[in-house]
Amino acid sequence: MNEKISNDGMICRILLFAVVCIHIFLCTYFFSNVRQGVHSDEIWSYGLSNSIGQPHFTTSPGVYIDDQENADYWANYNVWLKGKAYHDYITIQEDERFDLVGVYKNMSLDHHPFLFFWLVNIVCSFFPDRFSFWYVFVLQMFFLIGTQIYLYRLGKLILREKKWSPLLVCLFYALGQGGMLTFSFLRQYSLLTMFVVMHIYYQMVFFRSEDLNIKKYMIPVTATALLGLLTHYYMVSVAFGATFMICLYLLYRKKVKKMFAYGFSMVGVICTFLIIWPYAIRNMKTGNGSYVSYPMETQIKAALSDTLDLVSGLTISIYRSAAYAYLVIALVFIIAIGAPLCFLFRKEAWFIALREKVFSYGKDLFARRGKLFGYFYFIIPVIAVIYVIVVSKTVDIFKMGDFYKRYLFPIMPLFCIELFGICEYVLLHIPAVKKAAVPLMMVISVGFAGFSQLKPNIFTVRQPGNMTQFQASDFFEGKNVEMLLTSYSVPIYVSHIFYKTENIKICGRYWIKGKEKEELKPICDDFYYVFNDENGVLGDVYDFTINEKGDSEDLTQMEIDQTHLGQAEFQFESKEGKSAFNEVISNSHDPFTVEDEISILDYFKECGFDVRFVDDISTNGVLLKIYHVSKANLLTAEG
Questions:
Q1: Domain for residue 352, yes or no?
Q2: Among 324, 469, 589, 622, which one has the highest count of C-beta atoms within 10 angstroms of its own C-beta?
Q3: Are 303 and 408 within 8 A, CB to CB?
């Protein structure tokens, strides 16, 4: 018997290894063959980790990223630089190797904790003065392995079919689009995902233990919570949700002392975190939202729908419907009819037996502690809802677009195990298919995960169909480049391309207005002018309005067009507010338009240059128009 158990365990380990290999293969194939660009945050992963002293390329050293009122805020704008400036920003130099204190100081000027960036600095320290996206990608493969191992252990802990079901959960997660994107997007969400799964596993180990010994089980629970917090602030929602449900269970068991001990141990984690990282207090007060956003109800629905979509391909409607009204009416009707009937039959033997059976079943949810469809399956939805609410409160989906989905990556393994557990429970309670539950679950898991892969996703950062396909980094190598940008983050998007240039000049908005033309003449007679033709983010021009007193005023209401989600209708409390808002839009800080582009090209011609259009390209999600500006061309044409 023991030999059979040992053999089964070996088989499961081999199969888990195979699942991990499949997961790594999918991530690697997507990363190397499907993706055509990267997001600016992925470049920041390198800059924040490797550029000691100046974590943001466009911000002066020592200045906090949100301190734009600082007179010394901007750096590297409207000045000619050597391409090496970009190279040094994204690579690690000899004096920056293993400089964890420097990384800590860097992150104190950013929005995020430091742990992930420590690890990036350590990895890049083995490759000084060299750059590759593969450095962080390979690092994240270790996070993938850790996530899968603990997801398997979590499945063994809570699923009824303990032999094969945990493996199928891991396969379900590995094959889905969410599991693939989590570890191919070069950011701290992969590390946070691992800590989330580890933390929930250790919480459930305590929950399922017979003695509920806090001293015995709390070290890994608190350690994973602390490590998660040092990775990203969203860990607090996961730890809070799980701890709340565990404390509720301890209260039910009348173990009040243990409940307080358990709860205060997590409070201790928060205090320890704030001692290690006091900047969290400042950063948690800030968000990347704007005054304009979808209503909270819409944001929560969108986040839940997108999470479900990324793991299974299924979605839920984010639009308001009459279903909620019907549900309320039905509940009111049931209560109105049921309450008198309950009172009427309250002394009948059959009613008393039914009432006791219902109460007994409710108590049994706690008593079984996660066996079959027990209390555990109520813990994950609570964690998910709290997490989604926190994301919805701190992220503006309207402004960020689909890239906000990266914030949902850490809870996707929990969604996988929840969906799998529900399906397994249903199949095991259908006599006709009970014996075939495992193969059916395999078909269902592979089917839904495959369905999610058929959905388009923005993380491919692919070239638009009308754009020329060519390697921009090779094209600009050794050349002089001047760029006109519409967003301060664009230099980060393209930094790994333009560090190969000889000279580079980044020009922000209104660079030509209010300046003497003599100040703007290029330092070279032959260069490429790159115009960022992006229209910017939809929400940018809707940031604020001005009331009749000249003060900033929040938008009071926004209704979503039921046909096109992107169409918004704004309503104001006063006509003055609406009038002021329209004036703001007409005079807003819009990105450069085609007219600006033409005027600048005319200015180059006034300076005696020949201007020729080269190409339209899209690199890393940024649309660019390229012009060759040269006096040599002019001389050739005149000759």
A1: yes
A2: 622
A3: yes
Distance (Å, rounded) from C-alpha 367 to C-alpha 608? 84
Which of 333, 363, 393 is the last residue in one of the domains?
363
Residues 6+ apart with CB under 8 A from 562: 319, 320
User: Quick check: 452 pLDDT over 70?
Assistant: yes
pTM score above 0.85: no
Q: Is 633 found in the same domain as 504?
A: yes
Q: What is the pLDDT of residue 631?
A: 84
Q: Indicate the pLDDT class of residue 533, thresholds 50, 70 and 90.
A: low
Domain extent at residue 569: 539-586
* Percent helix, strand and coil across the chain, each to the nearest 5: 60, 10, 30
Q: 354 lies in a domain?
A: yes
**How many domains does one find in the chain?**
3
* Kind plus residue range of the DSSP H or E element containing 140: helix 134-158
* Same domain for 496 and 356: no
Residue 353 C-alpha from the chain's centroid: 50
Burial zone of 442 (CB within 10 Å; 0-12 exposed, 13-18 middle, 19+ buried): middle
What is the average pLDDT across 77-96? Answer: 89
* Residues 532, 476 within the same domain: yes
Residues 288-312: tens digit of each pLDDT = 544 445 677 778 888 888 998 999 9
Could you report the per-residue pLDDT of 203-256, keeping only the tens digit for each?
999 988 878 888 889 999 999 999 999 999 999 999 999 999 999 989 988 899
How many Cα atoms are found within 13 Å in the side-chain-facing hemisphere of 206?
Answer: 25
503 near 81, Cβ under 8 Å?
yes
Q: Using CA of residue 236, residue 241, residue 242, residue 247, what is the dihedral sign?
A: positive
State the CB neighbour count (10 A cutoff) for residue 231: 26
- Return the closest-CA partner of residue 322 out of 312, 334, 310, 330: 330
**Of 216, 238, 579, 254, which is closest to residue 388 (Cα–Cα)?**
238
DSSP alpha helices (H): ranges in 323-404?
323-344, 349-367, 376-394, 397-400
Average pLDDT over residues 477-499: 79
Tokens of 243: 């701890």
In this structure, what token pair is assigned to residue 158? Answer: 């809570």
Beta-carbon neighbour count of residue 171 at 10 Å?
25
Tokens of residue 394, six digits: 């701190």
Instruction: Name the pairing type of β-strands 503-507 and 80-82.
Output: antiparallel
